[in-house]
Every structure is written in C-alpha cells, then in structure tokens.
Amino acid sequence: MPTVTPELIRHIAELARLELTPDEVTRYAEQVGKVLSYVEELNSVNVDGVEPMVQPFDVETPLRDDVAKVFTPGKILESATDVVQDGFKVPQIMEAK
Asked: In terms of CATH architecture, what is 6-43?
C-alpha cells in the first residue's frame, strides 16, 4: 500500500481541481493514511465461505395490490379552493399583452 504523503494529497487535490491550504494537506494526509491502514487491516480478515450480502438482514417490502381508481372530474374538483370552467383556478403568472 502506498504511503500517503502531503505530495500525494496535493497531486490528488490538483486532479480533483481542489484548492487546499497547507493545514488541510497535512490533515488529509493523516486522515487518508488512517483510512487506508484500516482497509489494509480489513483485507487481512479471512472471509472464506462468507456469502456476500447487500444488507445485514432480510427486508421484506410490503406491497399493496395495484388497483386502478377512476375519479370523475366532479369528485376531483371537490377539493379545489376555486373552480373555473370545470377546472382548477390558479394564480395568473403571465401578463396578457
């Protein structure tokens, strides 16, 4: 695993078009180094015979029946605050010339 140096962080920042302060470069070099050390530690774990999984437990998503509902225009317009010519009245957003 490569050593994370401030030069490497500056190079990555340049590739990502990021401007980092010298303090950020130092801090990120330390933090990325710790993350990579942890990944290296995880790579040493024996996982032979362990099935890959997406979630740690089975999730069942309850589904309802797909039922089409038909509404009449009158039923839909019952909830309207204002109706004009069998339709919803909305605020004017454009001026007439």
From this structure: Orthogonal Bundle (1.10)
C-alpha–C-alpha distance, residues 83 and 41, integer Å = 67
Residue 6 near residue 25, CB atoms below 8 Å:
yes
Q: Are 5 and 29 in contact (CB under 8 A)?
A: yes
pLDDT of 23 reads 97
* Geometric angle at alpha carbon 44, from 37 and 50, rounded to 5°: 125
83-84 and 87-88: which strand pairing? antiparallel
- Enclosing H/E stretch for 87: strand 87-88
> How many C-beta neighbours within 10 Å does residue 61 have?
4
Q: What is the pTM of this model?
A: 0.50
Which pLDDT band, with edges at 50, 70 and 90, does 92 fall under? confident
pLDDT at 1: 63
